[in-house]
Design goal:
With about 425 residues, the protein is mostly helical. The chain folds into two domains: about 200 residues; about 170 residues, no CATH class. Helices cover about 55% and strands about 5% of the residues. The protein is built from 18 helices and three strands. A three-stranded antiparallel β-sheet has the order 1-2-3. Helix 3 crosses helix 9 and helix 16 packs parallel to helix 18. The longest helix is centred in the middle third of the chain and has 27 residues. The radius of gyration is 31 Å and the shape is elongated. The chain starts with a helix and ends in a 7-residue tail after the last helix.
Length: about 425
């Protein structure tokens, strides 16, 4: 008996130890998200797409809705009671004695079907738009929003932007309805996925669920409106957490050398790139000729052109690449696509990038080792032969297979940064 009890106690202790470890390791909403910022962003969203502080909708699905979160029916009554208790004298003056008494004495169930008259609606509008009304709305909204956020966290919603999106979802559908909607949404998450880590994953999954469920599709236009406000107005990341150095949110799929190259280009002085916008580097988008020459020019320290003569009719003064192109022309780095055109918007190929880079080197840096290229798509009489041979011999670039280099393949933004990084710093070079 004693042995059994001892074994049982040991098992219980082990279970408690394991359970505490699990809970200790689990991230919490409070430790993972700035709740003050979350509330501020949610309030901004609701004020933009839901309602204003003094919004009054007398008959919204059969009952009154008020305020910037459009508190409905019994919840509208809760807000009005809160304001009346906060400042009875002001509330009486705005509502009138009869409506004030109704607010203070009615049961919540009465307001589930209460539709105010035009005169009553006007009085309510005056009250909730006062400083006291706004303050009480903020207080009630904060409590509601943080409750929503905790529900979202429990559902596996993780990033701040995705949590704000969830909060608007629960405010729209209510606690009962949002459970159903979330079950629909989770049907379309990738197999084995338990969390919704980014706003893009959340919104894209909502759009997929809308193809099957009317409850989702009926409000898809509103979902799009919420998404657009979060990304375009609040400037929140749709892709995930921003990189702490650059602020870019689209670097997570880069390998370590590619990442180091982007950080180097972003922090270089002068700066080689600040991204396509403040949140995106867009590593896999096509690179045009203007970008390629400009990146190279900046990596060289923005040297002044040795000639002010511009032979190209499609390179206008005032463009970001004007000085870069003039420098490149005056140093024999580019001849243009024909005598009077540079074609700045034309996509740049892998061969062109390496040719620009090779021509920018000092003579001693252009020294080639003995040997030849193994690629059947880079001919010995090609303009790109020596640049590609130099790049391969120095670990700057590699072929796309054992026998091909794909010189005419469109270059990407990550390619130019990577090639420059390896050339200028000597780091991250490929080894044979």
């Amino acid at each position: 008996m004693k042995k059994r009890m001892t074994s049982l106690l040991l098992a219980v202790c082990l279970w408690i130890s394991m359970l505490s470890t699990v809970f200790a390791a689990s991230p919490s909403l409070e430790k993972s998200v700035n709740l003050d910022q979350l509330f501020d962003h949610c309030r901004n969203l609701y004020l933009a797409v839901e309602g204003k502080y003094d919004s009054v909708v007398p008959k919204d699905s059969g009952a009154l809705s008020i305020g910037f979160m459009q508190w409905h029916a019994s919840r509208a009554l809760q807000l009005l009671k809160l304001i009346c208790k906060e400042d009875p004298a002001l509330s009486k003056s705005k509502l009138g004695q009869d409506l004030y008494n109704k607010v203070m004495t009615d049961a919540e169930s009465v307001w589930n079907t209460f539709v105010p008259s035009d005169a009553q609606a006007a009085c309510i509008k005056k009250l909730i738009g006062t400083d006291v009304g706004k303050r009480c709305q903020d207080s009630l909204a904060r409590n509601d929003i943080l409750t929503y956020a905790r529900h979202g966290w429990d559902c596996g919603v993780r990033s701040e932007a995705a949590l704000i999106y969830y909060c608007s979802l629960e405010n729209q559908y209510g606690i009962g309805g949002v459970k159903t909607v979330m079950s629909y949404i989770k049907e379309f998450l990738p197999a084995g996925t338990d969390t919704i880590d980014t706003l893009n994953i959340f919104h894209n999954t909502v759009k997929k669920a809308a193809t099957k469920y009317n409850k989702v599709s009926a409000h898809l236009a509103y979902r799009n409106k919420v998404y657009n406000h979060l990304v375009n107005v609040l400037k929140l990341s749709a892709d995930g957490d921003a990189d702490p150095v650059t602020g870019f949110v689209d670097l997570s799929k880069l390998d370590s050398t590619q990442y180091d190259a982007v950080v180097w280009a972003y922090t270089a002085k002068p700066q080689i790139t600040n991204g396509v916008d403040t949140q995106h580097f867009d590593p896999n988008s096509s690179l045009n000729r203007a970008m390629a020459v400009t990146f190279l020019w900046r990596a060289k320290g923005k040297p002044a052109p040795t000639s002010s003569e511009n032979p190209f009719v499609d390179v206008k003064q005032g463009t970001y690449y004007y000085d870069a192109v003039l420098w490149a022309v005056s140093n024999g780095i580019t001849l243009g696509t024909d005598p009077d055109r540079f074609s700045p918007e034309q996509n740049c190929s892998r061969a062109q990038i390496l040719t620009f880079l090779y021509r920018s080197l000092d003579d001693e840096q252009k020294t080639l080792q003995e040997g030849s290229l193994p690629f059947n798509d880079v001919r010995a009489d090609s303009y790109a032969y020596c640049p590609v041979l130099w790049a391969v011999q120095n670990g700057i670039a590699a072929g796309t297979s054992a026998t091909t280099f794909s010189p005419n393949r469109e270059a990407l933004r990550i390619d130019i940064v990577l090639f420059l990084y390896r050339t200028v710093t000597g780091k991250g070079r490929l080894t044979k």
